[in-house]
Known about the structure:
The structure is a single chain. This protein is mainly beta and 116 residues long. The chain is 8% helix and 46% strand. It has one domain (25-114): Sandwich (Immunoglobulin-like), CATH 2.60.40.2550. It has one helix spanning 25-33; strands at residues 45-52, 56-64, 69-78, 81-88, 95-103, 106-114. Strand 2 (56-64) and strand 3 (69-78) form a beta hairpin. The longest helix has 9 residues, at 25-33. The chain starts with 24 loop residues before the first helix and ends with a strand.
Amino acid sequence: xxxxxxxxxxxxxxxxxxxxxxxxxxQAEIDQLLLQNYPNPFSTQTRIPFRLxxxxxxxxxxxxxxxxxxxxxxxxxxxxxxxxxTFDGSALHPGIYFYRxxxxxxxxxxxxxxMK
Length: 116
């Protein structure tokens, strides 16, 4: 190490710890609940599928590429099981959009593309 004044300094007591920085089980589970929309890309409508392992408080929010909220097609408590939301993007400009699933305090996001 060379200090600001040009002096050299030796460091000989260094300990490296090998490990993994990971995400908690709950976040890993929520990441698997939200599936890719289809069709993608789309011009008018697309379907956004997701799965809930238990009855949960759920929000599904659509954002544009600037992070502005465009729509919130789901907001409330849903039962466990497979769900599919049809999103109508016919009034939106072509581009990249994001949809975020929030379940009991955890969230995951995927990308969708509108082409006209």
